[in-house]
Amino acid sequence: MPIILAAVRVLLFGAAAFAVAVLVMNWPSRLDLRVAMRYLKSRRSSRLLSLITVIAVGGVTVGVAALVFVLGVMNGMQNDLREKILVVNPHLRVLTYGEGLRLDDWPDVLAKVRRTRGVVAAAPFVLTQGLISAGHDYAEGVAVIGVETDTGSRAVTSLPRYFTKGDLAFRTTQPGVEGGIAVGTRLATKLSAFPGDIVTMVAPAGSQFNRSLGAFVPKYRRYEVTGLFETGMYDYDNSYVVMPRLAAQDFAGLGSAVTGLEVRLEHPEKANAFAQQLETQLGYPYRALDWQLQNRGLFSALKLEKLAMGFVVFLICVVAAFNVVGTLTMVVRDKTREIGILLAMGMPRGRIRRVFIIQGVFIGLVGTVLGAVLGLILGSSVNSGHLIPIDPSIYFIDHLPVLTNPLDALAVVGASLVIATLAPLYPSVQAARMDPVRAIRYE
Fold it and tell me: How far apart are CA 59 and CA 322, in angstroms?
C-alpha cells in the first residue's frame, strides 16, 4: 500500500509538472498534440525511429529509477544506523568536565534533569572497559555498561526490546557469582558462553597492589550470563556487556559514583538544542552530549556520501537528456518534408516549435513516471526481502536497507521533468527555422 500511494503521488506530481510546462508553452491545440504523437510513431519505411524513441524513454526510466533507488539506500543507511545507535546510546548524556568520567553528586543532578520539561526518562549509568573469558584460553576485550535493573517504561534506551533471552532483571541461578550480565549474541558465540554459564571478567580499575610482587594484581570477578541481546549492530553484539549499575560501580571501582546520566527525550531530533539548554540550567562543571554530536562524524560522512552518489547518478539523467536531443534531432531530419508542408500551409513557426517540445516533454514524463515507480518497487522489494546482504563488521548492519523519502522522490521527478523540458529546445528551434521551399525539396 505505501508503494501504491507513493506511485500515485509521483503520477500526480508528474501530471502537474507536465501541465505547468504546457501552460508555459501556451496551451497546445488538438492539432499540435496529434502531430506530436504522430511524429513519435514509426512509419513502415522508418521503423528505427520508434526504436530510438523507446530507447530515449528507457534511458530516462533507468536514470530516474537508479536515482530514486540510490537516494533510498542512503536514507535507509542513515535511518537504520540512527536506530541501531540509539539501541544502547541514549538521546543525551550528562557528564562532567575534568579528568576521568565520574559523577559523584548524581542523585541531585538526576532530580533536576527529571524535572526538566521535555525529559521522558533519565537514569544513572556506568561505562567502563574490561576483559572477559569463559574459562578457556581465549579472552576478549569488551565495553561494560551498567544500567538500572528496569525493564518497564522508565528504560532510557530501547535495549530491552532486543533481548532474545532473559532481560534487564539479571536474575541469577548459579551460586558464588557476583551478579548477572547480558552479552551480545556474537560475543556469546565467540566465548561459547550462553545463559546459565559463568564467565570471568577483569577490570583495570579493579586491580590491587601486591607489595610482595611490587605490582598491581588484577582482581577476577565471576558473573553468570543471564541474557542475550541481538541489535543487528555489529559493535554492540560483538563487544558489549551489560550488567546492573551497582555491580558495574564495584567493577569499575567508582564506589557510589557513576559515569554520568543518560536521558531519553520527548523529541530526539531536537537533542542538540536541548543539550545546550540543559548545560545552561545545570551550569559548570556539567556538560550534555547529544546522540547527534557523539556520532557527528558518521552522519556527516553519510550526508556527504548521499550528495556525491546522488550527483553521480544524476549524470545518468543528463545522459538520457542528450539521448532525447538525439532522438528529436532524428525526428526533425526524418520529417523535414512534412515540416516544410506544414509551414507552406501557413502553420506558425511557434506551433512547429511547440510540437517538438511536446514530444520531448512526453518522453520525459513517461520515462520519469516509469522510472519513479520502478525505483519505488525495487527499493521496497530489496528492503522487505533483505535481498542484498552486507558485511556487518564493516558497515555495522547486516543487510542493505532502503527507505524512500517522498521529498527526495518528488525532487528527482521535478529535476527529470525540467531536464526533459529543456532537452527538446534545440531540435524544436531547428525545426521552426526551416525554409519551407528547401524543406519540401529535401530528399
Answer: 10
Q: What separation in angstroms does the CA of 41 have from each of 30, 46, 52, 338, 366?
A: 17, 9, 11, 14, 15
Alpha helices for 160-295 (secondary structure H): 185-191, 234-239, 245-252, 271-282, 291-294
DSSP of 57-89, one letter per residue? Answer: HHHHHHHHHHHHHHHHHHHHHHHHHHHHHHHHS
- With 0-12 CB in 10 A as exposed, 13-18 as middle and 19+ as buried, what is 52? middle
d(Cα 83, Cα 76) in Å, to the nearest integer? 10
* Spatial contact of 332 and 429, defined as CB atoms under 8 Å apart: no
**H/E element holding 306?**
helix 296-334
Q: Which residue has the cell 535481498?
A: 387
Spatial neighbors of 57 by CB under 8 A, at least 6 apart, are 363, 366, 367, 370
User: By C-alpha distance, which of 337, 371, 344, 361 is closest to 428?
Assistant: 361
Residue 363 to residues 14, 67, 316, 343: CA-CA distances in angstroms? 12, 18, 16, 25
The burial of 107, by beta-carbon neighbours within 10 Å (0-12 exposed, 13-18 middle, 19 or more buried), is given as exposed
Percent of the chain past pLDDT 70, that is, above it, reads: 80
Measure the CA–CA gap between 393 and 228, rounded to whole angstroms: 19
Longest dimension (CA), the chain: 114
User: In terms of pTM, does the model score above 0.70?
Assistant: no
Single out the residue of 103, 112, 92, 130 nearest to residue 247, CA to CA.
130
Q: Which of 124, 112, 406, 87 is nearest to 237 (CA)?
A: 87
Tally Cβ neighbours within 10 Å of residue 1.
5
| Residue range 216-261, pLDDT digits in tens | 667 788 999 999 998 877 888 888 999 999 999 888 888 888 999 9
